[in-house]
Amino acid sequence: MSTVLNFNAGPAALPPSVLEKVQAELLDYQGRGMSIMEMSHRSKEFEAINTRAEANFKRLIGAGDGYRVLFVQGGASTQFATVPMNFLPAGGTADYLVTGTWGEKAIEEAAVFGKAHLAASTKAENYRRVPTPGEIDLSPEPAYVHLTSNETIQGVQYPTFPDLGPAPLVADMSSDILSRPIDASQFALIYAGAQKNLGPSGVTVVLLRESMLEKANKGVATMLRYSTHVKNNSLYNTPPMFGVYVLDLVLQWIDGLGGVAAVAERNAAKAASLYDVIDESGGYYKGHAQADSRSKMNVTFRLPSEDLEKQFVSEAQKAGMVGLAGHRSVGGIRASIYNAIDLPACQALASFMGDFARKNG
Ligand code: PMP
Prior knowledge:
By secondary structure, the chain is an alpha/beta fold. It contains nine helices and 14 strands. Helix 4 links the parallel strand 3 and strand 4. The model has no long low-confidence stretch (mean pLDDT 97). The structure holds 4'-deoxy-4'-aminopyridoxal-5'-phosphate.
């Protein structure tokens, strides 16, 4: 059993019951006398995992017919490139809503492949919120519109998704995938690196509206074409088997909790336990995000000084709470509380925060 409360931003905590199952099956997967990592990706055992994980993910995210789930490699960062490579046609424009560091990276990468239009940005306010509908300036006929549902570094999350018109909507959901119910039919493509809410790093999940393939660009390298992975059920080449195996277990764990709606309720209570301390601290803790854009996955805040922030991180560590330093690019404190973190862990951190403010205020 893990002996720390793990608030890492990703790779992040996994459900203890999943890790125990992995441990129990590691040397001998279902009586085969070898681990899942040592058998063929064409074996019936792995095909069963691949098929089940695909079906369960699709059901949990609420995607209907016409959508495909893909397990690919290269992380969300590769998706920053493969989305425009496949779906930004020559002479076309892709629109990007940028609400933090990952959105910046996504639009920079799109600009390598074609015209990327910054349709909204909250950078002038240091990425404290998502744009208002009135601030979104779409180009006349975007090939697609891209947004980042949760900005992991700034801790800024769309509470609901804006109506962005008829263009296909693409979302980077790396840090809040399956953390709350969404209307999947709003999206043409969703991608997420697994290492926060779904499993270990090394596998990236893509939900794709299959009709998108009709207008996909030609001349894209085989491994970087979505159609390759669709045609081959994510088994074109050797997949990240261990990652898909753990992801399958995490999806079953989500079902065991009662599905995404139950997970969302739990996540709301967890986030509230921390934001309440921030709001009731009389300004000692200053949340980074504006209240209406607060992330339920990454709670970001500052203390009165950088010295106090260092002290906070080091005392928290001594109290068994790790991973609380903000991203190196922005500083401050960040508590990442993905699906696998439970309410008691957040309450323990909330109580530590209260005590720290009283002692050092
Ligand atoms: N997008 C978001 C929202 C992220 O949080 C991250 C990773 N922290 C990435 C993209 C990049 O993901 P990867 O490391 O899987 O390429």
